[in-house]
Amino acid sequence: MPDKPSTNYSSGGICMATYKAFLKSGHPPTLFAAFLYFDFSFAIWVLNGAMGPFISSAFHLTPAQIGFMISVPTIAGAFMRFPLGVLSQYMGRKNAAIVEMSAIVVALLYGFFFVHTYHEVLAMGVLLGIAGASFGVALSLGSGWFPKQYKGLAMGIAGAGNSGTALAALFAPRLAMHFGWQHVYGFAAAMMLLPLLVMILFAKEPPDIEHQSLRQHLQCLFEADGWYFNLIYIITFGGFIGLATFLPSFYYSQYHVTKVQAGTLTVFATLTGSLTRVLGGWFADRIGGITTLSVVFLIAIAALFGLMATPTLTVTTLLFMLCFAALGAGNGATFQLVPLRWPITTAVAGGMIGEIGALGGGILPNVLGMSKQHTGSYRLGWICYAALAFAILIMMRVVARSWTKTWVGSGGRALSADRHTSPGPAEGSITVAA
After folding, report:
1. Nearest Cα to 129, choosing from 152, 147, 104?
2. Could you say which DSSP state residue 6 is in?
3. Does 105 fall in a domain?
4. 125 and 69 in contact (C-beta within 8 Å)?
5. What is the CA radius of gyration of the chain?
6. Contact between 67 and 365 (Cβ < 8 Å)
7. How far apart are CA 108 and CA 237, in angstroms?
8. Phi and psi at residue 146, to the nearest 5°
9. Which one of 66, 270, 342, 424 has the lowest number of neighbouring Cβ atoms within 10 Å?
């Protein structure tokens, strides 16, 4: 009796086949350009946080002033995201990215030549917010060439550009130590030319766009689901960006390490979170974004509770790495769900969700700074954020019951092409079937 053809493939072969199918399904150069654009923009966005110990020493800032100074770029970037997302729907995502990166270079040159006081640092923080506006455009540009079943992975790869936090934490303190913190703005302006050129030369505008009226684009602002996603992203992305910007100052004040060492320790945590963003999107494609988010929320909450005990430096760093790994994966899982819920206006919906999530990142440094200044400890700040995360986890589990009956499959998986569902709360704006 003839042998049957073997179907026992190795996991490596399956992964390689999946990877090749993923690349063939889209336009990799555009995805790479989107990643680079987001990576460098993210590094610029958190630049003041990475140089926090240098700036605080130069102007003798209180813990509350440090928290506020660090939060200004985050808050400014949050408010700039949604307008850029809307603009990209009319002028194209590639053109919007080119305009934004050009503005970032001009802003950094201003910082290099004109920033010398604390109030000028705050003004510079507003200009650094321009870089924070890149979020919705970068993810939509990177994933726009890929079909629905690969959206989570594509967004995860583009979103892994939040590794820019690690670049800033690694290089900014060393440059500041040798050349002065104001000169770091000049170095950053020169480096920003690289992603700008890559975007101009290699990226192509994705075809997944449908021009609609401004009212249709803004529709997600008036839907309950939009605000549920906002709250989820306040924890996953807000926690990520808030901690990433605050960690250098936290390590410097809490454990009295050098300014360069504080940046190096920050790299361990932020780089972990950046890498797991891709895994979050990958797992969400397979087991569902809702299931993935539930797991990562529980892990993040456990890590935050561990930080309340003020452990040793080594244990603290490990807890931060665990927390960032969970938050990074949560970011990827969230944006596996967004294009399923808003398939036509993904850039606008992503811009809105990213905007509110980034505002959450502005909250955390202020809460931790106020906790340190008024109680002498960061413990109360950790308690407040852990409690907020737990409340939002419960909310998500409740509303997810209606999601799986309308626009998404069990656990948050993408619905199969042959399955049709009712438009649900999007009032006809969602087309689930192919």
Report:
1. 104
2. P
3. yes
4. yes
5. 21
6. yes
7. 24
8. -105, 145
9. 424
403: containing domain: 25-203+214-426
What are the angstrom distances between the C-alpha of 190 and each of 36, 54, 244, 264, 306?
15, 21, 23, 23, 41
How many Cβ atoms sit within 10 Å of the Cβ of residue 167?
A: 23
Q: Which residue has the tokens 């807000």?
A: 238
> From the centroid of its chain, how far is CA 298?
19
CA distance 252 to 263: 9
Say how many domains are in the chain. 1
CATH number at residue 191: 1.20.1250.20
Yes or no: say if 425 and 223 are a contact pair by the CB < 8 Å rule.
yes
Q: Looking at the whole model, is its pTM more than 0.85? A: no
Distances, alpha carbon 392 to alpha carbons 28, 385, 395, in Å = 35, 11, 5
Secondary structure (3-state) at 207: coil
Q: Which two tokens stand for residue 256?
A: 């009295």
Q: How far is Cα of residue 15 from the mean position of the Cα atoms in its chain?
A: 26
- Give the pair of three-digit tokens for residue 408: 């998404």
Asked if the structure places residue 8 within a domain, the reply is no
Q: Which residues of the chain have pLDDT under 50?
A: 1-12, 14, 417-434
**Axis crossing angle, helix 118-132 with helix 52-59, rounded to the nearest 10:** 160
pLDDT digits (tens, 9 = 90+) for 4-18: 444 443 444 546 667
The pLDDT of residue 90: 80
Residue 5, pLDDT score: 42
Asked if residues 156 and 277 have their Cβ atoms less than 8 Å apart, the reply is yes
Residue whose C-alpha is closest to residue 335's, from 263, 278, 373, 260? 278
Q: Which are the contacts of 215, defined by CB distance < 8 A and separation ≥ 6? A: none
Residue 291 lies in a domain: yes
- Residues sharing a CB contact under 8 Å with residue 193, sequence separation 6 or more, in sequence order: 105
CA dist 246 and 272 (Å) reads: 16
Cα–Cα distance measured from residue 139 to residue 95, given in angstroms and rounded to the nearest whole number = 14
Give domain status of residue 13, yes or no. Answer: no
